[in-house]
Design a protein that fits this description.
The protein is an all-alpha fold and about 190 residues long. It has one domain. It is built from nine helices and two strands; from the N terminus they run αββαααααααα. The chain has helices spanning about 1-10, 20-50, 60-65, 65-80, 85-100, 100-125, 135, 145-160, 165-185; strands spanning about 10, 15. A two-stranded antiparallel sheet has the order 1-2. The chain starts with a helix and ends with a helix. The relative contact order is 0.20.
């Protein structure tokens, strides 16, 4: 959500940056999809193991390959992988930051690298490796209901990542109006 804040406060010459604001809104929508998916994935695993400790998992891919593929997609969207919704908003905010505050753009890029590293480290510990617990050994892959929910969230994440213009076109007029209103002095 730091990208949302950055995008909302990218001012140059007293005017908000269009890339920044549209990127912030895109990132908020993306965050809704990706966070819902990640929390749902955690819920699926918790329902089977009844633990939130990363150390209680390991080797999930061996027992739940379909789930692991969905979880990987959402983890990569969380990390901002191109082609996912997480990339679209973050890229737009960084482009806005490059136009207004280059140092802020560099710092935002560094946070992406750190966040991606943490996400990959978490995914590796939970999903890959040998099965480390008897609870994981007893796990079943996703049910039909879980698959439908994960598939719908995956479609939303991919569509927004591949064609963000579908969302951006709807907000452009409103964003431009907001920027025009902010630029007018109220004093």
């Amino acid at each position: 959500m730091g990208f949302v804040t950055l995008g909302c406060f990218l001012f140059a010459n007293g005017t908000l940056n269009v890339w920044g604001v549209e990127g912030a809104i895109t990132q908020m929508i993306s965050h809704g999809f990706v966070s819902a998916a990640m929390f749902f994935c955690i819920g699926v695993m918790y329902d089977r193991v009844h633990s939130r400790q990363i150390s209680d998992y390991g080797g999930v891919v061996n027992k739940m390959p379909i789930f692991a593929a969905f979880f990987m997609l959402f983890a990569m969207a969380n990390a901002g992988l191109p082609g996912t919704s997480g990339f679209a908003g973050e890229f737009m905010v960084i482009m806005g930051a490059v136009q207004t505050h280059f140092v802020a753009a560099i710092l935002a890029g560094l946070t992406l690298i750190i966040g991606a590293g943490y996400t990959l480290w978490m995914y590796k510990r939970v999903v890959f490796g040998d099965v480390t617990s008897s609870h994981v050994a007893e796990m079943d892959d996703v049910s039909a209901r879980e698959f439908i929910i994960l598939a719908l969230l995956a479609v939303a994440v991919i569509v927004m990542g591949v064609y963000p213009q579908l969302f951006v076109a709807k907000m452009h007029v409103s964003v431009q109006h907001l920027i025009d209103q902010v630029a007018i002095s109220k004093l």
